[in-house]
Structures are given as structure tokens and as C-alpha cells.
Amino acid sequence: MPDNSFKWLDGSRFDFSHWASQPKLEEKEKCKAIVIYFNGYWAMPCGWKYTMFCQRQVEPTVHKDLQDYGSKVIVSLKERLSDLEERLKELKDKKQTDDAGDLVDDDTCGIRVYRRGLALARIAGQTAKPVRTNEIPWQVGIEHNGLVIGGGVILNKRWILTAAHVFLNSYNASKYRGIVGTVEASEAIYVFFDRLILHYDYKRKPNDFHNDIALLRTNKDMRLYPKWNLLNSACLPTPGEEFEGEVIVSGWGHIDSEGTPAKRLKKVDLQIFDDKICESQFNKSYDKKIMICAGSYKGGKDTCMGDSGGPMVKIVDTIAYVVGIVSYGIHGECGKSNVGSVYTKVSSFIEWIYNYI
Fold first, then answer.
1. What pTM was estimated for this model as a whole?
2. Per the database record, which ranges form the Peptidase S1 domain (predicted)?
3. Catalytic site residue 337?
4. What CATH number should be reported for the domain holding residue 291?
5. Is residue 60 part of a domain?
6. How many structural domains does the chain have?
């Protein structure tokens, strides 16, 4: 290691011979090529407040090798910064993906682990039967003031999809709580919410259920499958995807038109109807671009009051996709044959969903 001594930046010795004492230079004219190795590091006394220097007739220049070295250092630093920025971007993207729960590509969404052999239960109908534990792990019951007022579907560990019209009493998310991981209301596992987002084009008007969709965020992460079999998310469809045939709808709502409350979670198998059925029933209030019409040709099973916001799922190769959200129907006509109920078409709102979760 060098001694505490003055040197020029080119490494040559700082020689005091043949020098003349001169006044201190102005700040902008101070020598910039003198350094001292002092206490383990190089210092530039030109910047010291009370330093006085003699002037040399020919100001020393920086050695070319040092210039080349400095250039290499700058290039190396730029490369390292670029690598660091790229790594930070990767970490940020990974965090966003984790937060979103890998909604479409997640290999675990739509999976359910339960004992087989249960006959289909009816949400509305005298032959209603209970759902088995774990059979519908994405189901959420939404409570307000101790009463189940609607349903929802788990999308990932923090977000639940539901219907906007469920929240008539308050838009304050903390006023509601969710029932998850159970089929018995008396054995409820509760989650709590810190954010409620209604679709920006939802209008709170009588007989207007356009854009009837909303999102609830839980205040803590939920433990989903495979960490816990009681809870899992349903998969989202691709934007604009169309479905037909049999679907499954579930909820905690009334089991008949008289308002008899369900004591256990119920499900029902329905058929997606031709849009013309609901267009004839509801006239201009039905919009096939953002709604789905479904029901039973024979009657005896349907959604009813209290099921709003609950999931309509389509099972594709054993995987459940949430294709609709319970929206509205004809009052007092739960379970009538050839009478359709209306569901918000989830595939029409995929971009909106991803904007928030």
C-alpha cells in the first residue's frame, strides 16, 4: 500500500523543487489533478476548504490507461445496473403474478377434493339436498348484520367475485363478512373485507341489472388448495368465451318462493337457455352481450332470493370455470318450468376484473 503522500493522478511523484509560491486559485481554476493517499483511501485536497497550492507551469494530464480504465468501469457499472433493473422487474412481475393468484393459468384453480356419489341438490325446490364438504370450495356467503344476503366466488387468495346489486345497504366493505370453507351456516368460517369495487357502469336503478358485477377484497390471505382442501378458487374463462349445456349454480338463498331460508349450502344443475327465452321475459332489460339466460325445462329447480352474486360454474374436464354470477329473475317464480333467470356473463368482464386484482 502507498504511504500518506501526494502524487499526480498519472502516478508520478509530486516534486516540490523549482516551484514558486502563488496565490490560492479561484474555485473554478483549482488544480484537479492532485490526490493524496491518506488513511486508506484516495482524497482530492483541491476540494478542501483551506488548502493552498503552488502552481505548476504545465498541468499534468490524466494517464491514458487511467482514462481507459475509467471507461471500462463506467461500462461495467451500466451493465450491472441494467442487470439489476431487469432482476427487479422480474421480481415485481412475479409479485404481481402471485398477488393475482395466476387466475387463468393456475394449475390448481377449479379443483375440488370431496367424496363422490351425491345427487344434485336444488337451491329452490322441495327436493333440495345438502352439498358435501369440499364439493364447492370456491363458494362464499356474504353476510350483513348477521343475515346471508348473497353469495360470491373465490378468484384467488384475496379476491371474491360477486354481484353489484347485493350491496344495497352500504358500500363500506367492512360492514360485510364472508362465510367460506363450510356447508353449514352454523359452522361458519369468516373472512373480512377491506375493499369493495362495483363496476363503473353499474347503475342502481329499478329493473336495471346491466354490469351487475363487483369485487370484494379480503383483509388477509385465504389458504387455498393444495394448502387446504376446504377452500379453492374457480378458474376464469377467456375473454368473450361462450358456454352451453349444463351448469351448476350454488348458494345460501331461499329454497322456495315463500322465502324459506337454507340451513345448508345448496347447489342445482341448470341448462343454459337460448337468449330468446330471457329476451321475451325481460324485454330490454336483458342484454345477451353481458348476460346469460339459464333455468330448467322441467322446472322444480332454480336460483332464488339470497343467491345473488353466487357462482354459475361449468365443469370442463373436471375443472370448474365461473361463467356466470347470479343476477336476477322473475319475483315469486323460482323453479318454474321454462322460466329463465339471468346471470352476469363473466367472460364479458375479464379485462375489468384484471384491472383490479
1. 0.66
2. 123-357
3. no
4. 2.40.10.10
5. no
6. 1
